[in-house]
């Protein structure tokens, strides 16, 4: 009964002229609204204009990160409450580019996820292993530990989505194999259930070099509830093809 969920992460891409792309994506989201949930996390500078331009559509808008506090002396940061105020419905937390580039720990991720959900923002919590861990055959232990330490104390299927994004697959053109993804998604559900949640009801997305040509293969597996898409979400043509591939 899990609804497919396709989310685009625009990272540090997009100025006002990207609003036309957003309008094209919103039209596609409207056309599959009965079957698929669709979201885009534009840069925060575009969020308010994005809400003005596609606000009434089925396309949800989100943030790419938030602080663990709702306000305070944190120059350059932005709180979950502020994202919500700007019209965001969800926020991506713990992306590997935040974990590595900004040294975010599992404890930081856990606190940010709790802060997001406290103000009613859906949270897309990312986990993923580096290549050396995968090659050493230690990916599952690593991921189980990372997820358990990043999870907030309480969570529900409507507020929390997990995105499995192997670091070596992000932006490289090397999508992980479907069987490996399915194995990790099963593990994620077990960890969620062990942490007091309902693993079978939680949505688990895959991210890492998903594109218009490889999305249908991914969504053929019941365990894979959708995708977190970087590069291929920047153009409406490729992102809309991924959205349509998720419509049963
Ligand atoms: P990619 O990025 O689709 O460009 O590999 C995925 C992500 O970072 O979420």
Name of the level-1 CATH class? Alpha Beta
* CATH 4th-level superfamily: Aldolase class I
At CATH's second level, what is the architecture? Alpha-Beta Barrel
Number of helices: 10
Distance between the termini: 12 Å
Which topology does CATH recognise? TIM Barrel
Major pleated sheet: 8 strands, parallel, barrel
Q: Shape, please?
A: globular
Instruction: State the secondary-structure class.
Output: alpha/beta
Give the amount of beta strand, in percent: 15-25%
- Strand arrangement, largest sheet? 1-2-3-4-5-6-7-8
Got a strand count? 8
User: Which range best describes the helical content: under 10%, 10-25%, 25-40%, 40-55%, 55-70% or over 70%?
Assistant: 40-55%
Number of structurally distinct domains: 1
Bound molecules: 2-phosphoglycolic acid
Write the layout of secondary structure elements.
Elements: E1 5-9, H1 19-31, E2 37-41, H2 44-54, E3 59-63, H3 80-86, E4 90-93, H4 96-101, H5 106-118, E5 122-127, H6 131-135, H7 139-150, E6 160-164, H8 178-194, E7 203-207, H9 215-219, E8 226-229, H10 236-246
Parallel strand pairs: 1-2, 1-8, 2-3, 3-4, 4-5, 5-6, 6-7, 7-8
Helix pairs in contact: 1-2, 1-10, 5-7, 7-8
Bound molecules: 2-phosphoglycolic acid (PGA).
List the keywords.
alpha/beta; binds 2-phosphoglycolic acid; 248 residues; 10 helices; 16% strand; 40% helix; 8-stranded parallel barrel; TIM Barrel; globular
